[in-house]
Amino acid sequence: MTQNSPIASRRRFLATCLTLAATLPAGLLLAGCPSGGGPTEGASPSAGATGASPAASTSAAAPAAGSIKAGLVTDVGGINDKSFNASAWEGLQKAGKDLGIQVKVTESKQNADYVTNLDRFAQNGYGLVFAVGFKMQDALKEVAPRHPDVKFAIIDGDAPPLPNCASIKFREEQGSFLAGALAGAVTKTNKIGFVGGEDMPLIHKFEAGYKAGAQTTNPKVQFVVGYAEAFNDPAKGLEIALSQFGAGADILYHAAGASGIGVINAAKQKGAGFYAIGVDQDQDSLAQGRVLTSMVKHVDVAVYNVCKDVTSGSFKAGTVTLGLKEDGVGLSPMSFTKKDIPPAVLQKIDALKQQIIDGKIVPPATTEDLAKFKAPA
User: Fold this and answer.
1) What phi and psi values does residue 233 have, to the nearest 5 degrees?
2) What is residue 330's DSSP assignment?
3) Tell me: the pLDDT tens digits for 228-286?
4) Does 27 reside within a domain?
5) Same domain for 161 and 306
6) At CA 240, angle to CA 237 and CA 243, rounded to 5?
7) 133 in any annotated domain
8) How many domains does the chain have?
9) What is the Cβ-side half-sphere exposure of residue 87, based on CA atoms within 13 angstroms?
10) What is the domain extent for residue 180?
11) Residues 189-233: tens digit of each pLDDT
12) What is the pTM of this model?
């Protein structure tokens, strides 16, 4: 071995560090001498670890924001659905900016991707993983028990009863009730429509609330209903919407993810006198003047708040349900249509909102509850 070999140089460097250790404060020594290096992007935080590092031991309750990585798995609608997934991703991006955490999104192309995508984030050092959509319930039940040190949060679905899992749900029927009440009050044909993504209990909440609200402001109202059987088929949404407009409806509410973009495009094609009602995000700007309002679900705020809880060490397992009272759902500001709505109608919508918050009106969340619903005077 030569005097200038890499090994000899390394030994001389270590010897220098040991000498300094006897004379310098520990903080200066750590600043001047390198450690073995932390995990890289894509590596499990526990890979090769034999004990807690000094940093980990001092921040177990609330890890340093910069050390947290949060991943988000979308359903098949993807982040460009201008709806549910897009809202979740916006919330995570804001958390990344405001809280200094690392964020990343993975789009699922098919249902079979859910387990793989959730598991990949958990294996690659992400301390917080979001499952966006009720369809990931079974996947989360499979993945979460394998990663007890990773925190999971599912939107709109049931989380397994584990200390590392949280579920965030919304009272969609409450916001949909207000959307229906508005539609019932302003329809000119007394016929309005509903376009769902898939025919399932979650979407029934939107439909039931919408119908109950419309019946409350317009006892003569009639409905046309269709389901696209997909959340990512705008062409199908357009086809159903044009059919419903052709059948005499003048206002259509969609709860169909990306398929609902077709409903909005149909209202835009039809022009004056025809409206769509958006969902999840404020979709009013997608067809200015042709989107009467949007039933906004504040998925972005919910995602942000979970990130904030994790960074502060106050993450709580279990289920949180957000409605009008918690500002979890509500109508958009109607920036492009409010001028066209009579003030008395807007006042009525505000009054109905307060009655729901006060518990005087309980919007139906199922088809069975809708059948028993009695419109308030």
Assistant:
1) -130, 80
2) E
3) 999 999 999 999 999 999 999 999 999 999 999 999 999 999 999 999 999 999 999 99
4) no
5) yes
6) 145
7) yes
8) 2
9) 23
10) 172-296+342-372
11) 999 999 999 999 999 999 999 999 999 999 999 999 999 999 999
12) 0.80
